[in-house]
Amino acid sequence: MSLLTQLHIFDSTLRDGAQGEGISFSVQDKLHIVKALDELGVAFIEAGNPGSNPKDLEFFQEVKKLTLKNSKIVAFGATRRKGITAADDANLTSLLGADTDHVCIFGKTWDFHVTEILRATLEENLAMIRETMEYLVQQGRTVIYDAEHFFDAYRNNPSYAMETLKAAASGGAAALVLCDTNGGSLPDEVREITEVVVRECKLPVGIHCHNDTGMAVASSLLSVKGGATQVQGTLLGFGERTGNANLSTIIANLELKMGLSCLPEGKVALLTPIARRIAEIANITVDNGMPYVGFNAFAHKAGMHIDAVNKNSRAYEHVSPDSVGNERNFLMSEVAGRSMILNRLRVYDPAVIKESPVATQIINRLKELEHDGYQFEGADGSFELLIRKNMGKYTPFFDLEYYKIIEEQPVDGMPNNAFAQIKIGVEGRMAITAGEGAGPVHALDRALRSALEQFYPSVAEMRLTDFKVRVLDSKSATAAKVRVLIESTDGEDDWTTVGVSRDLIEASWVALVDSFEYKLIRDSEKKV
């Protein structure tokens, strides 16, 4: 079985990523992530240890039913335990039960770990590595060997570290992966050590970095320059402690900066939508500042920058946003300039020019709202609604008759302490609904959602992902004006809306209504 004849991406989101704080995948979550990674074209998907828990065992049974076009599923485990044979090791038996062609085995490389943590002799550890490789190869598996703590091991005892690799190679390992498990190595030493291993070992070499010094991406790229042909990490970088090497950044740099192919042709353009899909499955948001795939990766705010980008995008963009499936964003603010607003207006009316009355009207209205405390640079949904309303391109989807909020002191054991009643009208038909929640905004959201779903079932696809409140004039104390930002998603699109008022509930209501109306506008346009 051939392996690693070119540069390969090895994604560990389902195992290493699942160790990140707040990350928990169901079996269905894992299957959806596998489909997304296969669509992106990663070579290997490390899916966990079938012997570790019933959920992973069920996953390996279910994943066999998928037809994958690009990716190979890899089961993960450790070398045999000390004092027994590989054939008698229950974890290796479970690993074989996953029925994957490829397995990834980690073993102890650092003499300190062998004697102090494993409590084994150095010779026995070498036998554990070699015999595990031999056993799995005899069972028809292609084995990728992960050398745990390799860079710490090499710094402290380079001869023994190399012996462990040679033990894996003599046992039949198809590839040797150097792991910076503690994440404490610097990129230049990672490259130097990778070069030594590539020179002395005749097998393909891989790299697996953690991000404890913020160097995981840089170390991975320099390891490739040193000869590594497999890069391990998680697509969005989440994992234990400070996370793993961020593959979305690594892939883009390999493909667009280093001229190295690590995905099937044309697949790098799927990077942003796949990254955001996996973030949605993991119930997290992609960091706005994440390179290449973040919302702000190609965002421009200053007027001079926006003007320059409109003339030639190379002025302030190192690559085209289209190359990674992202898009250019002109952030709305008082410094963005008239040209930025014109760009947005021309989406609805290409004939609009600087002197058009509607342009002046919207700019003046924007200044009024900003004076009142609104900011639209992070509220794309509300800004689009503002433009539509001032250009006659807006029809409300519902009319509010009234809402009422009742809140009571929280009682132990009762998570919901607020209640909302709402009455809305849609084309002459009325709906009266109620909702309860952990606070008035939560209750209001539930009541409005319940009412709207009677007329617009697609609202059920939508959920709020973040809620922020900013006090604008703290000197006014409890009478202060507040700005509320609500981030929403339907699993396909993400948007943010804003509301401002001296009444927190009213500010939340304004942002909430904008959020639902933005979703309904998008849905109506898709039907046309």
Question: Explain this structure to me?
Answer:
This protein has 528 residues and is of the alpha/beta class. It has 3 domains: 8-281, TIM Barrel (Alpha-Beta Barrel), CATH 3.20.20.70; 299-390, no CATH class; 399-527, Alpha-isopropylmalate synthase LeuA, regulatory domain (Double Stranded RNA Binding Domain, 2-Layer Sandwich). The chain contains 17 helices and 16 strands. The strands form 4 sheets. It has an 8-stranded parallel beta barrel with strand order 1-2-3-4-5-6-7-8, surrounded by 8 helices. The longest helix is centred in the last third of the chain and has 24 residues, at 504-527. The chain is elongated and about 80 Å long. The protein starts with 7 loop residues before the first strand and ends with a helix.
Q: What count of domains describes the coordinates? A: 3
Give the integer mean of the pLDDT values: 87
Identify the CATH class of the largest domain: Alpha Beta
> How would you characterize the largest beta sheet?
8 strands, parallel, barrel
Give me the secondary-structure category: alpha/beta
- Count of β-strands: 16
What CATH architecture of the largest domain would you give? Answer: Alpha-Beta Barrel
Radius of gyration: 28 Å
N/C terminus separation? 51 Å
Strand order of the largest sheet: 1-2-3-4-5-6-7-8
Tell me the CATH topology of the largest domain. Answer: TIM Barrel
Helix content: 25-40%
Shape: elongated
Strand content: 15-25%
Task: Write the SSE topology.
Elements: E1 8-11, H1 27-40, E2 44-46, H2 54-63, E3 72-78, H3 90-97, E4 102-108, H4 111-117, H5 122-138, E5 142-148, H6 150-156, H7 158-171, E6 175-180, H8 187-200, E7 205-209, H9 216-225, E8 230-233, H10 247-257, H11 271-281, E9 299-300, H12 303-311, E10 329-330, H13 338-345, H14 357-372, H15 380-390, E11 399-407, E12 418-426, E13 429-437, H16 440-453, E14 463-471, E15 482-489, E16 494-501, H17 504-527
Parallel strand pairs: 1-2, 1-8, 2-3, 3-4, 4-5, 5-6, 6-7, 7-8, 9-10
Antiparallel strand pairs: 11-12, 12-13, 14-15, 15-16
